[in-house]
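hi! just following up on the protien thing from before. the input was this:
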Amino acid sequence: MKNHEGCMKCGSRNADSKDVSMTGSGLSKMFDVQHNRFTVVFCKDCGYSEFYNAESSTASNIFDLFFGG
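and the predicted 3d structure came back as:
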């Protein structure tokens, strides 16, 4: 993995995160059951975003992953 400082697209260090839920496939999609939880980290300057599985990622390392730490 390439080491980088800041956003992979524009180099900005201006980022934020949000928790989102999404439907799966099959019956969960049909009944709009949103059981897939993710944390999305996004650059506030260019909008580049990365999704992380909320169940396997901890808040302390998400920004490190986004910024290549």
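DSSP finds two helices and three strands in the chain.
The helical segments are 27-30, 59-66.
cheers
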